[in-house]
Design a protein that fits this description.
8 helices; flat; membrane; Sec-indep_translocase_CS
Amino acid sequence: MQIKEMMSLMDHLSELRTRIIRVLIVLVLTMIGGFFAAQKILLYFKETPPASAMSWHVFSPMDGIRIYMMIAFVISLTITLPFILFQAWGFVKEGLTKEEQSATLRYIPYTFLCFMIGLSFAYFVVFPMCMTFTIRITDNLGLTQTYGVAQYFGFMLNIVLPLSIAFELPIVVMFLTRIKLLNPKLLHKFRRYAYLLLVITASLISPPDLISHLMVAVPLFALYEISVVLSRFVVNAQIRESSKLNIEVSSY
């Protein structure tokens, strides 16, 4: 029995390794493609506010290469995300029923859509707000604004990526509800702790003033409440499916 369990574990580890290798290969290939698009994207950022109002500098011979790598990686991650999710689904699908396999597979396009919505919200709303705040503080202190291009993009990605990932919350909650790891009652029970965590997250990725915190925290609260509603929707759908199945069985 132990030998059989050990062989099963080794098979799972082998499959996991294969899927990770596939993801890495796709990441590398799309990252190579990202290098060709990086310059055009860099020029777009440079000609778009708030970057168009400032001079960019490099403080290291490696800054230019670092920016190319950074932009290419973000392009690669965005393009590869559906494939990463599909590979994750392929790894866990054996532990799911046929209905759960079908349901979770349908979540993948919505996961990508939520990521893109979060990316857009973070870049077009939150990031300009953060830059406006920091520039205003710099001007009030009478300091000369000299920005390094690597530091500028690092600051931008530290804001954009966490928010983009946070927008995956509704889909993650639906999936965990579907496989019965979460339910609306549990989400209601831990709402106050979730809100506290979201407030902390908002304070970490937004300027240190109340208005900015609220502008980031309120969408995160809305995402949590949407997640609760979607979780309830999934549970009700499961109850209807179970009732329908029981009726069909009893009819025989």
